[in-house]
# Entry
Amino acid sequence: MTAMMKGLANGLIFLGLLGLSCARADGLDAGLAAIDRMSELNGVALACRFDDQMRRIKQALIDNLPKRRELGARFEEGTNAAFMRFVSKGRPCPSPAQFESEVGLAVEQLRQAYAQAGD
# Structure
């Protein structure tokens, strides 16, 4: 193998690894966005006393997330911030049916994001 071919081979290997790294980062970004969405919804559920949806959200997290402290902390902090925003702005609660539908979409996004991330 010539030096030029070795350089080309090494470059292709590097690009392949870079591609895997970027795909992994995209999967993690989608996962974090899904957690943030669940936090937002949980804050609203807390403010509106949609207890059944709070349980549904938490169960989806338990079922789909890897057991990592930083992910749980992100969810809890996001929930607290979402609750405070919702209450301080005096927003009206959504209808239970509308909210249930939003939670269903968010749960599916969470499942897909963590299935793709491979965690």
